[in-house]
Design a protein that fits this description.
Blueprint: H1 15-21, H2 24-27, H3 31-47, H4 53-72, H5 84-96, H6 109-145, E1 150-155, E2 158-164, H7 165-190, E3 192-193, H8 209-215, E4 220-221, H9 225-230, H10 233-260, E5 267-268, H11 287-310, H12 324-348, E6 350-351, H13 353-362, H14 367-376, H15 381-398, H16 407-411, H17 421-424, H18 427-432, H19 442-456
Parallel strand pairs: 3-4
Antiparallel strand pairs: 1-2, 5-6
C-alpha cells in the first residue's frame, strides 16, 4: 500500500479500511491537474531558493515523464495507491530518487487536493460553457428560420394565444444564456489558487503564493488559508448551475416529446436520434429527449448530496470532503454529454409548419384578439370578454373556429362586428401586431435576434 504517511503508526491499515479510505479509483482523473500543480509548486520553490535549479529540473522532468507514460498506457494508475497524489509522488521518487521527496516541501495534501479539484472544475466549467454556446447557435439559427412559423402558445398546457416558433425558441435561448452567465460568474469567484495554504495554517517556508497562482492561470491566491482547504462552494455552485441547465434541457425535452406525439405532430425527430420498439414495428421513440429528462434527477441528486455532505463540517479539512468528487464527476459527465446530444437532436429535427399553424387556428388562440377588436370598437373590455366567451361556446357546439363563422353569425353576438374582423383575428395579424419588446411580432423578434446575435459574437 503506497501511502504518504505512516511514521506515526505501528500497525498496517486493515485492507477494508484502506479500500474505504482510498480515492484513487475516482480521483485518478485529476492526474493532469495534480502534475500541473506540482510543476508550479516546484518552480516556485526554486524561485524562492528552497530547491536548486538542478533539483527543479529533475523533478519537472520526472513529473512530465509520469504524465506522458500514463497517457500512453505504459504506466498504470492502480489501486495499489491511496490517491492520485501518492501515485504521482511515489512514482516520482522511484524515478529520480530522494530529490523527489523534496517536492512536498511547504505543501499538504489538503491544499493539493483543493487545488486539483479547483483546476478541474474550472476546466469543466469552460467546457460546459462552450457546449452551451453551440446550443445557442443552433437555437438562434432556428429562430431566424422560423420567424413566420405560427403556432399556438400555451398556458396550463391549453392553447392560449398564437405566437411564432421563433418566439417560443427564443424563450429557451434566454434560459441557456442565463446558464452561461451563471457559469461565467462562477469562474470569477473561483479563480483563486489555494496552493500554499498547507494543511490549513500556511507554512513557515517563504512561499510565493501569488507566483504559483499566476503560473496556474488564476487571478490570484486565496486570502484565508483555513477557508482555502475547506471551501467547496465552487463545487456546489457548479452543481447548482448544472442542475439549472438540466432543468432547462428537461423542460425542452418534455415539449419535444409532446410535440413528437401523434396528437401534436409538430415535429419529426430525425431517425438518427430516435429508436424503435422491440415488439411494435410502427414505433419511433424520442429516446434522447426522454433520457435527458430522466438524467436531470441524477444531477439534482449530486447537488443535494453535496449540500448535505458540507452542511455539518467544522473547519477546516475533514475526510467527508472526499465525497465531493464522484458525484461531481458524474454530474459533469452527464451534463456535458446531454447538451451536445440534445443539440444534435434539435439541429436535425423537422418542424411541421402546416400542423402548427392549423393547431393555432383550431384552438381559439385568437379569442383575446377578438375581444380586443370589440374594445377598439368601443365595447368595454369586461363586456367584450363575456361576448367572446359565449362566442367560443357557440363555436364548440358547431365544431368551428371563430374565423370560420360568417359575419351574420358574429353579429348575433354583438353588432359591432364588421367585415374587418376577419383580418383582425387572422393568425398573421394576431402575431405580427404584437410589437412590444420581447413579443412575437416580426419587428420585435428581429430586434431580439439582433441582440442575441451580438451577444454570441462578443
Amino acid at each position: 500500500m503506497a501511502q504518504l504517511w505512516g511514521g506515526r503508526f505501528t500497525k498496517e491499515t486493515e485492507q477494508a479500511v484502506y479500500d474505504f479510505n482510498a480515492s484513487i479509483l475516482f480521483d485518478r482523473r485529476l492526474i493532469h491537474q495534480d502534475i500541473a500543480g506540482s510543476i508550479a509548486h516546484c518552480t516556485m520553490l526554486c524561485k524562492q531558493g528552497i530547491l536548486t535549479e538542478q533539483e527543479r529540473d529533475s523533478i519537472i522532468e520526472g513529473l512530465k515523464g509520469i504524465e506522458k507514460d500514463t497517457e500512453s498506457g505504459i504506466l498504470a494508475i492502480t489501486s495499489a495507491y491511496e490517491d492520485i497524489h501518492s501515485f504521482v509522488e511515489a512514482n516520482l521518487i522511484d524515478r529520480i530518487g530522494d530529490t523527489g521527496k523534496k517536492l512536498h516541501t511547504g505543501r499538504s495534501r489538503n491544499d493539493q487536493v483543493a487545488l486539483d479539484m479547483r483546476l478541474y472544475v474550472k476546466e469543466q466549467v469552460l467546457a460546459t460553457d462552450t457546449l452551451l454556446k453551440e446550443l445557442l447557435e443552433t437555437l438562434l439559427h432556428l429562430m431566424e428560420e422560423h420567424l413566420d412559423t405560427y403556432m399556438p402558445g400555451f398556458t396550463h398546457l391549453q392553447k392560449a394565444q398564437p405566437t411564432s416558433l421563433s418566439h417560443h425558441l427564443g424563450a429557451y435561448f434566454e434560459m441557456f444564456r442565463r446558464d452561461r452567465e451563471r457559469l461565467q460568474d462562477l469562474c470569477r469567484r473561483m479563480d483563486y489558487s489555494p496552493l500554499g495554504a498547507g494543511a490549513f495554517a500556511g507554512t513557515t517556508y517563504p512561499l510565493d503564493r501569488e507566483y504559483t497562482a499566476s503560473l496556474l492561470g488564476f487571478s490570484g491566491a486565496t486570502l484565508n488559508s483555513m477557508d482555502s482547504v475547506s471551501d467547496r462552494d465552487y463545487v456546489i455552485e457548479y452543481l447548482g448551475a448544472l442542475s439549472l441547465i438540466m432543468m432547462h434541457l428537461s423542460r425542452f425535452s418534455e415539449e419535444m416529446i409532446l410535440w413528437n406525439s401523434n396528437e401534436y405532430r409538430f415535429v419529426e425527430i430525425d431517425d438518427a436520434y430516435s429508436t424503435g420498439s422491440s415488439i411494435m414495428p410502427q414505433k419511433k421513440n424520442p429516446d434522447i429527449a426522454e433520457l435527458v429528462r430522466g438524467k436531470t434527477g441524477r444531477v439534482y441528486g449530486a447537488l443535494m448530496s453535496m449540500l448535505t455532505t458540507m452542511k455539518g463540517i467544522p473547519l477546516a479539512y475533514n475526510k467527508d470532503m472526499q465525497e465531493d468528487k464522484e458525484m461531481t464527476f458524474d454530474a459533469i459527465d452527464t451534463v456535458n454529454s446531454c447538451i451536445p446530444l440534445f443539440n444534435g437532436m434539435l439541429r436535425t429535427t423537422s418542424f411541421r409548419k402546416d400542423v402548427m399553424e392549423k393547431s393555432a387556428m383550431k384552438g381559439f388562440t385568437n379569442a383575446t384578439d377578438a375581444a380586443d377588436y370589440l374594445v377598439l370598437k368601443g365595447v368595454p373590455f369586461r363586456d367584450a370578454h363575456g361576448i367572446i366567451g359565449r362566442l367560443v361556446l357557440y363555436c364548440l357546439s358547431k365544431e368551428k373556429s371563430i374565423d370560420e363563422l360568417s359575419l351574420e353569425e358574429l353579429k348575433t353576438f354583438d353588432p359591432h362586428f364588421e367585415e374587418d374582423v376577419f383580418d383582425a383575428i387572422s393568425l398573421e395579424t394576431c402575431v405580427e401586431k404584437r410589437l412590444t419588446k420581447g413579443a412575437p411580432g416580426r419587428k420585435a423578434m428581429e430586434e431580439e435576434i439582433r441582440v442575441s446575435r451580438a451577444y454570441l459574437e462578443q
